[in-house]
From TrEMBL:
Residues 3-58 form the HTH deoR-type domain. The keyword DNA damage does not apply. Keywords: DNA-binding, Transcription, Transcription regulation. This is DeoR family transcriptional regulator. SUPFAM superfamilies: NagB/RpiA/CoA transferase-like (SSF100950), Winged helix' DNA-binding domain (SSF46785). Gene3D superfamilies: 3.40.50.1360, Winged helix-like DNA-binding domain superfamily/Winged helix DNA-binding domain. It holds the Pfam family HTH_DeoR. GO terms for molecular function: DNA binding; DNA-binding transcription factor activity. It comes from the Bacteria. InterPro entries: Carb_Metab_HTH_regulators (IPR050313), DeoR-like_C (IPR014036), DeoR_HTH (IPR001034), NagB/RpiA_transferase-like (IPR037171), Tscrpt_reg_HTH_DeoR_CS (IPR018356), WH-like_DNA-bd_sf (IPR036388), WH_DNA-bd_sf (IPR036390).
Amino acid sequence: MLTEERFNIILKTVESKKAVTVQELTELLGSSESTVRRDLTALHEMGLINKVHGGATAVDNSYTTSEDDVAYKHGQYSEEKKRIGQYAASLIKKGDFVFIDAGTTTEALIDYISEKEATYVTDGLGHANKLLKKGYKVFIPGGHLRISTEAMVGEETVEALRKYNFTLGFFGTNGISPTAGYTTPDVHEAMVKKEAFENCRDAYILSDPSKFNKISSVTFGDIGSATIITTDLQDHKYLKFTEIMEVDRNDLHSDL
């Protein structure tokens, strides 16, 4: 049996049973114990399973299709969002053409932006308002407004973003997974995120620790196609898949 075939069988078995022993897999695959152990090690290193003593368990990915509204999200992980936002803002330089995704984590970024000689595009209505009040040059694409996230969505929004080539892009996410990448519950928002994401020279995911090992309904980007800015990273397997900037508590300055 080919390695790829064994991997597929192992993954399906772990997914359905949640836990499996080496002995069960040797009987199922008709392979030696040493071969099964090597396969489990390889799959563990890819982040697809958890290798444990005597077998393997499913990765603790939490699937979610629901989404909290903006008012609720503002109160969640507020300190972490400030730390992430301040660090992200420091990456913006003179002449940059910046996309800022809708969402509460990316909104925290705007509070710390000081570069006035950059141009900003956002699909977040509240984001655009804050940027305008700070006197920055900002564009908002057309479309219709999604109430729960205050984000512009629709084919008109996607079409408007298609013509842009951003130097930097900052995105929120509802889930981060080695297999599913960056995910969000709403297909219309995913289309907007994906279009902007693919048009960024450098894309950054701004994420508090709660988003790791979660999968939402629609993928808008592969795990390795962006740098993650976060705090207090718990699951270090993600370092194998993409660059991660972990912001320390001491990096937050009280200059607002």
